[in-house]
Amino acid sequence: MQLIYEKCRGRRAVTFDALDVPEVKLPEALLREKPAELPEVSELDVVRHFTHLSKRNVGVDSHFYPLGSCTMKYNPKMAEAVAAYPGFAWLHPHLSTVPEYQAKCQGALALVYELERLLAEIAGMKASCIQPIAGAHGELTGVLLIAAYHRDRGNTHKDTIIVPDSAHGTNPASAAIAGYKVLQVPSNAQGLVDVEKFKEALNDRVAGVMLTCPNTHGLFESNIREIAELAHSVDALLYYDGANLNAIIGQCRPGDLGFDVMHYNLHKTFGTPHGMGGPGSGPVGVGERLLPYLPGPRVVKHEDRYALEMPEKSIGRIAAFFGNFLIAVRAFAYILHLGDEGLRDVSRMAVLNANYILARLKGAYKPAYPGTCMHECVFTASPQAAQGVHALDIAKALIDCGFHPPTIYFPLTVKECLMIEPTETENKETLDAFCDAMLEIAKLVETNPDSLHAAPVTTPVGRLDEVKAAKELNCAKLQ
Ligand SMILES: *Cc1c(COP(=O)(O)O)cnc(C)c1O
Question: What CATH topology corresponds to 77-338?
Fold first, then answer.
């Protein structure tokens, strides 16, 4: 190792500008005794190293990425270009908070104001707030708003939030972190909230009901109106988990269905990067009842300028400044670029693509629930598991076919679950290639099940012991 560093000594990828401040000598005691063993490399070495590593990665820009409940969808490069405008990218957020400097960031404040207005309009809400920096953070904010509402009304006896078993796993976690007891309601045979069980669970102590819609079975909760009426009859507020709004955008609006509060995932519905691709954003939307409690400060529009105001009953800040502002810029560009009809096409195509996969695969894989689906389709690999090939084996085999696996073993309500979300941006050729691979794997289950236990065999790292890999991280082995 030592030898390599010696050999590379003096190679450079950057040249710093000449010092334009006085040089300061560090005290002797702080100096290293010998030079740090850092690789010294040329620009070409650096570029090759990281390009090589990036090719081992699977991402939306390189592969079909059908993770269900995660919406790994394409990030239009147009939105990246807009977010890189120096007027947005180089703006110091503190400017917005100092009244005499607010004149310098009127454009950014206008963007926040307009985006919050558009998001509210899209979901039929009275207002929205872009501060929360993830979907789960939006949920927590929403539940804190529900708590503020009940506190204000003296509803001190309300200590419970109802969450169906088909909700996203973050829902019960958010309710619990906000201090509520969580009561789970089971699904019926159709994969929807069991309304009879819901009625049994509902009582005066219920502060709120959190519904994921479409739920994690990929199904629209068709009894929403009845559930909303029941919830409101005991002064419980209705929370809409709108992470997957791409399934219904432009078709129906949570506000019109009776929801009081919701969150959006800009990184699932509005084309912004997801996961390790970039920071998230989970704005909240509210109806009339929760309007006074929204996080602040809020951007308000005066006749000739935008300014900041903290609403009197606000729950306060839940993130610095406006959350992930440059993500908001991307989402704003995305919404304006697509416009009314374009946004409606998003949901049409997302649902069509998922149903295309459902139709092509349902002869070989068992759908978890009857009927059509929304933006994602859910199968159970139980029949394959009976032959010794599990959902995990199918997922790993897909990697060898050049596809990122779908979500597996989630939702927990479906045994040997395979949850596939194609998103609206994939073309028919890609969907067909994926379905062909899935059908090929289904055939192998019949003819050569053992071959699937070794997969993946084409990747730099083969099948890992996932528990050990998570608990005993050994980076050296991956190099
Ligand atoms: C992804 C998702 C969330 C959580 O969003 P994060 O940004 O990952 O925190 C919540 N609910 C549903 C239905 C989701 O799909």
Answer: Aspartate Aminotransferase; domain 2 (3.40.640)
